[in-house]
Amino acid sequence: MKPTNKFLGTCGMMAAPFLTFALISGQVANAANTSIGGFFGLVYMLGWQCCIVGLINVQAAGPRKKDNLLFYIQLLLLTIANIGNVWVMIDPCADSPYFMLLDNFWPLSNLFMLVIGIVVARKAVLKGWRRYVALGVGLWLPFAMATSLLLGRESHFAFYPGALYSFIAWTALGWMVYESEGTDTATPTQPFNYLF
């Protein structure tokens, strides 16, 4: 049975605060990675993946196979990043070159979301505020980096704007997917039909 966008969006909204939880767990432990932080990161990215499938369902970048390629690349990036999250859960102090390689897929998936956001906004398949939600999510990493530079990486205050932005942006993405079920944005389809 194919998951509906209501289900996918609900998963996305429920997972939205977990990036904040992951960041808090690292601050509390005074460490870059913790096992519980790895779990929080895993949940957050699984919710994000649900939202990406929801964007495929509503053909947010257009109806052709090549239009959906960006979404499948993003699903792959998030899957690889989640392998890193599982590794952190098992060994939070990992420092092997393989782990460092996997760890790079976390910011890479955030940067790639900016590309997706630009494409979705330009294609204008989604109407009104929906058109810009993915772009808002994609702007999270530049926003978090800018506030960190402005407020200072060592400042605890630098954490809060990015955490709040993250919660709002991913919740909005989940809500957009949730309420796109049955709307006139596009005809929902099987998410993997466009590979073949």
Number of β-strand runs? 0
Mean pLDDT: 86
Oligomer: single chain
Largest sheet: none
Residue runs with pLDDT of under 50 for 5 or more positions: 184-196
Question: Which percent band covers the strand fraction?
Answer: under 5%
User: Order of helices and strands, N to C?
Assistant: HHHHHHHHH
> Using only CA atoms, what is the Rg?
17 Å
Please state the structural category: mainly alpha
Shape: globular
State the helix count: 9
Distance between the termini: 19 Å
| Helix proportion | 55-70%
Structure description:
With 196 residues, the protein is an all-alpha fold. The protein is 67% helix and 0% strand. α1 runs antiparallel to α9 and α8 (140-151) packs antiparallel against α9 (159-179). The longest helix has 23 residues, at 35-57. It is globular, with a radius of gyration of 17 Å. The two termini are 19 Å apart.
Key traits:
globular; mainly alpha; disordered C terminus; 196 residues
Q: What's a quick, concise take on this entry?
A:
With 196 residues, the protein is mainly α. 67% of the residues lie in helices and 0% in strands.
What's the structural blueprint in terms of helices and strands?
Elements: H1 5-15, H2 18-28, H3 35-57, H4 69-90, H5 97-103, H6 105-123, H7 133-138, H8 140-151, H9 159-179
